[in-house]
Amino acid sequence: MNSELASDPGESTVSVDLGDRSYPIHIATGATGRFAAAFARSLGDVSHVLLIYDAAVEPWAEALAAQIRVESTRVDAAAVPSGEPSKSIAQFGQLLDWMLDRGADRRSVVVAVGGGVIGDLAGFVAASFARGIRFVQVPTTLLAMVDSSVGGKTGINLSGAKNMVGAFWQPELVWIDTLAMKTLPDRSYLSGLAEVVKYGVIDDAVFFDYLESNAKALVERDPEVLRYAIRQSCLAKARVVGEDERETSGRRAILNYGHTFAHAIEATAGYGTLLHGEAVSIGMQMAASLAIRLGRCDAGVLERQTEVLQACRLPITFPEADVAAMLPVMMRDKKVAHGKLRFILPTKIGHVELVGDVDPAEVETAIRAHC
Amino acid sequence: MNSELASDPGESTVSVDLGDRSYPIHIATGATGRFAAAFARSLGDVSHVLLIYDAAVEPWAEALAAQIRVESTRVDAAAVPSGEPSKSIAQFGQLLDWMLDRGADRRSVVVAVGGGVIGDLAGFVAASFARGIRFVQVPTTLLAMVDSSVGGKTGINLSGAKNMVGAFWQPELVWIDTLAMKTLPDRSYLSGLAEVVKYGVIDDAVFFDYLESNAKALVERDPEVLRYAIRQSCLAKARVVGEDERETSGRRAILNYGHTFAHAIEATAGYGTLLHGEAVSIGMQMAASLAIRLGRCDAGVLERQTEVLQACRLPITFPEADVAAMLPVMMRDKKVAHGKLRFILPTKIGHVELVGDVDPAEVETAIRAHC
Ligand SMILES: NC(=O)c1ccc[n+]([C@@H]2O[C@H](COP(=O)([O-])OP(=O)(O)OC[C@H]3O[C@@H](n4cnc5c(N)ncnc54)[C@H](O)[C@@H]3O)[C@@H](O)[C@H]2O)c1
Ligand SMILES: NC(=O)c1ccc[n+]([C@@H]2O[C@H](COP(=O)([O-])OP(=O)(O)OC[C@H]3O[C@@H](n4cnc5c(N)ncnc54)[C@H](O)[C@@H]3O)[C@@H](O)[C@H]2O)c1
Ligand SMILES: [Zn+2]
Ligand SMILES: [Zn+2]
Questions:
Q1: What are the extents of the domains in chain A?
Q2: Which one of A133, A320, B232, B369 is at 20 to 30 Å from B289 when CA atoms are compared?
Q3: What is the pLDDT of residues A31-61, one digit of tens each?
Q4: pLDDT of B10
Q5: What is the 3-state composition of chain B as percent helix, strand, coil, each rounded to the nearest 5?
Q6: What positions does the domain 3-dehydroquinate synthase C-terminal occupy (chains A, B) (predicted)?
Q7: Rounded mean pLDDT of A131-159?
Q8: Is A160 left (phi over 0), alpha (psi -120 to 50) or beta?
């Protein structure tokens, strides 16, 4: 057993260091009863909470609301329909109207309970109401636990453009309880594992070793292994975000490993055919192949990554890919500078670099290697 | 003639000092021809400008757009209907859709041309698009020149709540050309003067002296006097904002001198009966009376303030006031702490302080003194 795990009594805290915007990420299993205390520790006296939750996790939301009410704090709760379409200007406006109607003011606190959709939406609502009020993230999908709830990116979609509108707005507390995984469908859970593997490849070789040894337990949602995997993922994300909070230095771009390919797969396959993490899994395979072709790393990186992704039951090829359509999409991606393709590519397990001016023919070959 | 004026060749720059968010306010008369150069100085190479303007100032917007195009920058322009209802979620969403449609990206720059409505709306659009892109304020009302374009408060309204949604987002440049005053109706212009007088009372006794001597020329829109008054107003606002950018220390509250009364007047008279500056003028009179009653300043403060406001042709009483309705509105105002009324009150010309726990009976008497 990993030595850090042995010294971990089950609950732990990771801190995101951003000066006066720093906050803790609390990771535990079955800790709802301690939520109110952690909430009070991070936020002090709060008189009014606006709890915004995914309709699919109503029981969770109710349990948390009950906890907060124990401290005689007033709680108003609003259910948001599940799914990406809720990240809209219309839903944003509705929630703001609802908050005003509930008497929210600048001392009120928003609590977001749900996956990335709810976190992104409620976070942007909190960032904008009265020019910014405090908020807490309670992620209930694995993707939200290891990725979207940490780092302060909030936002909504415009028709045809994801995350086009939003704010950088950090939460005061991220509260992760792996019990929420009980109701999460397998495909969504496994999809979240792609981002977990990503952190190993881009930033933490020791963690990657751990994943190689513990993939089976992780897939089976063993609480201890799961907590450890979430913890290492949050540590990696917090490190990167701490170095580049607002995506200005370029450092934060390493989180996009595999994502330029993934976005092109998602866009050309029609959003919804693949889950995001599934596309990321295939995209990381393409990126590793590209790195090998460009002489940036040896074939062992792809081999080890392939084995871990397969052990996590993630897809590693996409036979239905429309390769001819993918390249133009990639040329429009944000990481294209002056018409040149740029990629985050591994040099070895645990380290990536930004590689510019990549020949489109090499990119196409890397794509075809996984179709 | 004032010595600082003598050394001012007509154009001048005030700087707002906010660390890496600092920016210049440029003040001139008939300087459109130099806009492109100032724009390039503040923003560097820009490939795409989104010019958002009040439909009432189309010729101004077109002249500026032509200037920017001289540098072969692509300019897309959108007219927004005049008036407060444009500060809505619907208009916000429409502008964002339009920007996406025009191919805006995170390097694009928003230029807001109009009064406070356009500046607040376009500023929030810039703050939110791609989680924040750069923007420039070109205020075309006096209120916008001396108040709303400086300080980074952006936002829109919810039905029944002004400025309830928004962001703190600083511009890269504020470009003030007093020629825009040519088309501004008298009532709007004079209304803006109330905020100018406010700066003298709260922060700058020498400037107040100047206003006493030059009120007539100011009312007649003498360009030199007008530029000087705008400059001193911007200096005062920049000083206060520099000390309390996000309204956290309480310092920024001094800008609300007269405003607790003014908001109550506006709310009970029905928004639109009085212009904002007219209500502020009456509100400052009530605040000065309250200060005298509480023994915070001598009667001379009110006398001098009355004379300057009258010389600026601003109302100093509001006989139609619904006094009984005003107090409850004031109790709901943001500056009420734990049910106690708090006011920004003068101690002498050029200095104000926050006074808490004020007896409502004294407030009512101060209101009645100006009805
Ligand atoms: N802000 C960021 O940094 C960031 C990073 C990555 C992704 N994102 C965003 O996150 C979103 C995707 O997040 P997601 O994958 O969590 O999607 P999601 O929020 O849509 O959740 C996926 C599905 O799971 C359901 N669900 C949530 N928790 C559940 C639970 N405990 N039990 C059963 N069902 C549950 C939801 O109702 C939904 O149908 C996207 O909008 C993406 O843009 C944001
Ligand atoms: N952000 C801040 O710090 C701040 C401060 C004070 C006020 N405000 C906001 O500012 C708004 C009020 O600003 P305003 O008084 O400029 O109102 P406004 O923008 O509505 O302009 C007033 C009127 O003048 C017209 N107009 C504008 N420029 C003109 C010109 N050069 N010639 C002829 N007509 C012209 C407009 O079409 C409008 O009808 C309010 O929404 C208020 O909340 C914001
Ligand atoms: Zn991802
Ligand atoms: Zn005002």
A1: 3-181, 191-368
A2: B232
A3: 999 999 999 999 998 999 999 999 999 999 9
A4: 85
A5: 55, 20, 25
A6: 192-336
A7: 98
A8: left
Shortest distance, CA B93 to any CA of chain A (angstroms):
6
Is A4 in a helix, a strand, or coil?
helix
Q: Is the confidence at residue B273, as pLDDT, over 80?
A: yes
Structure tokens belonging to residue A262: 């993934």
Contacts with A129 from chain B: Cβ below 8 Å:
164-165
Among A96, A154, A131, smallest CA distance to B153 is for: A131
Q: Which residues of A are part of a known binding site for NAD(+)?
A: 82-87, 116-120, 140-141, 153, 162
- Closest residue to B131, CB basis, from A105, A130, A153: A153
| B158 to chain A: closest CA residue | A97
Rounded CA-CA distance A168/A155 in Å is: 9
Confidence at residue B8, expressed as pLDDT on a 0 to 100 scale:
42
Q: How many CB atoms lie within 10 A of CB B287?
A: 30
- Chain B nearest CA to A297, separation (Å): 32
CATH number assigned to the domain covering A3-181? 3.40.50.1970
C-alpha to C-alpha distance for A285 and A366, rounded to whole angstroms: 9
To the query of whether residue B348 is one of the catalytic residues in this protein, the response is no
Confidence of residue B34 (pLDDT cuts 50, 70, 90): very high
Q: Global pTM?
A: 0.95
Known active-site residue A256: yes
Rounded CA-CA distance A8/A231 in Å is: 11
B191-368 belongs to which CATH class? mainly alpha
Contact A100 B158 (CB under 8 A): yes
- A2 as an active site residue: the answer is no
Q: What's the CA-to-centroid distance between A365 and ligand 2, angstroms?
A: 57
**pLDDT, tens digit (0-9, with 9 covering 90-100), for A239-290:** 999 999 999 999 999 999 999 999 999 999 976 789 999 999 999 999 999 9
